[in-house]
Amino acid sequence: MTGPSDAEVKHVTVDAAVRDYLVRSCTPPHPAVRKLAERTAEVGDAAGMAVPIEQASFMTMLAALLAAKTVVDVGTFTGLSALSFALGLAPGGRVVTCDVTDQWQEIAQEHWAAAGVADRIEFRRGPATRTLRALAEAGGPGTVDLVFIDADKMNYPTYHELAVPLLRPGGLLMADNVLLDGFVVDPASAEPGLARRSAERLREFNATLAADDRLDAVMLPIADGLTIARRK
Ligand SMILES: C[S@@+](CC[C@H](N)C(=O)[O-])C[C@H]1O[C@@H](n2cnc3c(N)ncnc32)[C@H](O)[C@@H]1O
């Protein structure tokens, strides 16, 4: 008897019904996370930028497992990822989150305050490269527990370069949307223009991360793909 081929190795396709079941089979999300996710859904098409609630719960768990004191959240939007990390911080910990726009800050601040974590989250407006460089200057290398990259895809390689030195040994670099709707497998199948260039860039980024000998990286098929890389 032969075992399953590589193509047959157990893999469940997560359609809407499976995803719904999966979400219902988790501990219910923190009420503040649910409220912010609901409020974010009201902003229209942009709402799809937020992490889904099951990923939010997972990120809270990772921050708690690390007993994180310092988390850097690249790409704030309405503040869901920052909130998720803030809920898992060790006492005295903080999240630094940054975005080029403060368009969504009113929503973010209202929900951070309602969750009782506003004093643990610092928002910095401006390009993420500026925030990452400033953190390196202020704190020095090896001072951050977790960096989450979830901003403009074309800059992921730059964020990788800037983030790794910030991480302490055992700290995590996390990158969102690493499957980019599956287009990373075959970037030529994406629409010409930014979508295709982003798929090509993310493909390069994924390969670079997997080959980075400072990190142990795993890519998970949660939502749009999430890579978690542990600093050696
Ligand atoms: C996918 S959304 C972030 C979602 C957020 N992490 C969440 O879970 O709700 C990406 C955000 O990155 C921001 N962004 C785009 N380019 C940026 C840059 N160069 N520096 C910082 N933020 C940027 C966008 O304005 C947008 O709000």
Describe the structure.
With 232 residues, the chain is of the alpha/beta class. It has a single domain (31-231), classed as 3-Layer(aba) Sandwich (Rossmann fold), CATH 3.40.50. Helix content is 39%, strand content 19%. The protein contains 8 helices and 7 strands, in the order αααβαβαβαβαβαββ. The chain has a 7-stranded mixed beta sheet, with helices on both faces. Helix 2 packs antiparallel against helix 5, helix 3 (53-65) packs parallel to helix 4 (80-86) and helix 6 packs parallel to helix 7. The chain is globular and about 55 Å long. The structure holds S-adenosylmethionine. The site of S-adenosylmethionine has 18 residues, from helix 4 and strand 2.
List the helices and strands and how they pair.
Layout: H1 16-24, H2 31-41, H3 53-65, E1 70-74, H4 80-86, E2 94-99, H5 105-114, E3 121-125, H6 128-139, E4 144-149, H7 156-166, E5 167-176, H8 194-211, E6 215-220, E7 226-231
Parallel strand pairs: 1-2, 1-4, 2-3, 4-5
Antiparallel strand pairs: 5-7, 6-7
Helix pairs in contact: 2-5, 3-4, 6-7
The structure holds S-adenosylmethionine.
